Amino acid sequence: MVRVESMRRRRLEPDARREQILSVAIRHFGSRPYAEVSTTDVARDAGVARGLVNHYFGTKKDLYLAVVRVMLTVPEVALEQLPEGDLPDRVDSIVGYFLDVVSRHSTSWLAATGAGGMAGDADVNQVIAEAVDVAAVGVLRAVGMGDDPSPVLRAMCRSYVGLAICTAQEWLQRGVLTRQQVHALLATSLIALVEQVFPVH
Question: What residues have CB less than 8 Å from 61, skipping those under 6 apart?
């Protein structure tokens, strides 16, 4: 037990410690409603003092907003690892990555997209809106249209991100669609949008 505790409390670099706390918070907010999670719980399971959670994230609400942001944003590394192939290959890869992430963190992702008991909160809504916009730009970059996209193009792609979220919810939450069906719907739709709908200027 002493050895386990010492491992949990081992000295980490600030970025690594922050990521450790965030990882624990993702698990907590994904498994319980917002009101039932405390920063004390998060600190205990992360093996740190509660003050350190406050130092990195501020209030419990700030910590929750960080969880929502990371659950809804496509990381830079995912875009960098896309294949150099043609449009169908790149679309297949980005859709596959998205479905891998939401299935691996399904409870946390569903809580984030459903506001996890914080529906209607202005700050949560703002973070979700910002994350959707960032995701839209990431999708545009993945299909080779990410260089200074116009407001119209960004709006169209935000609509696609909304489709992706709703479709994944049909799969993970309602069990109506299979992963294969979701992948086909999202990939086919994105290719059609790029080739037939998205403005090129």
Answer: 123
